[in-house]
Automatic annotation (TrEMBL):
Pfam families: dCMP_cyt_deam_1 (PF00383)
Protein name: Cytidine/deoxycytidylate deaminase
Top-level taxonomic group: Bacteria
InterPro entries: APOBEC/CMP_deaminase_Zn-bd, CMP_dCMP_dom, Cytidine_deaminase-like
PROSITE patterns, per the entry: CYT_DCMP_DEAMINASES_1, CYT_DCMP_DEAMINASES_2
GO biological process terms held by the UniProt record: purine nucleoside catabolic process
Membrane-spanning segments: none
Native source organism of the sequence: Aeromonas molluscorum 848
Length: 162
């Protein structure tokens, strides 16, 4: 049990996982992929690392969070695991995370950050009539080591939006 004098080391740990996630998303984007990545972690152990594969598979369900769930679930139930995502989960991904008993999502960029670049899922939430107040599980935005423009904006003069 911790008291007020014991420092909370969870935030730096969450921040370190999020930095890895954003780096993965940026590297994937630099290789021509969509700018999304997710890590699935439980008890400090990486269970899965994934990127958005929509562009390769022609499958709109190949979001990074779902790819991480697909990989990690091969090894058993995911209850209590945490997801680190480069962006706020869309309704499809959030539903899958809730259904798999994920305990929390830490993310770098919210819909407002992503909107100028065409990567905003807030309209999907609105069209489905889904409110995030209160959220179905903790959704925690952490500081990103890069800007939204760096991850989502034009790279080398080319627009990679799909």
């Amino acid at each position: 049990m911790t008291d007020a004098s014991t420092p909370d080391i969870s935030l730096p740990t969450h921040q370190a996982w999020l930095v890895k996630t954003v780096e993965l998303a940026l590297n994937h984007r630099r290789r021509g992929g969509r700018p999304f990545a997710a890590l699935l972690v439980r008890d400090g152990q990486l269970l899965a690392s994934a990127v958005n594969l929509m562009h390769l598979a022609g499958d709109p369900t190949r979001h990074a969070e779902l790819e991480a769930l697909r990989t990690a679930s091969q090894h058993g139930p995911l209850k209590g695991a945490v997801v680190y995502a480069s962006g706020h989960p869309c309704p499809m991904c959030l539903s899958a995370l809730v259904m798999n008993d994920i305990s929390a999502v830490y993310y770098a960029f919210d819909n407002q950050d992503a909107a100028p670049y065409g990567f905003d899922s807030s309209m999907s939430y609105a069209r489905l009539g889904l409110s995030l107040a209160p959220p179905p599980l903790p959704l925690i935005k952490l500081a990103s080591p890069i800007s939204a423009a760096t991850l989502y904006g034009n790279m080398d003069g080319c627009d990679h939006h799909e």
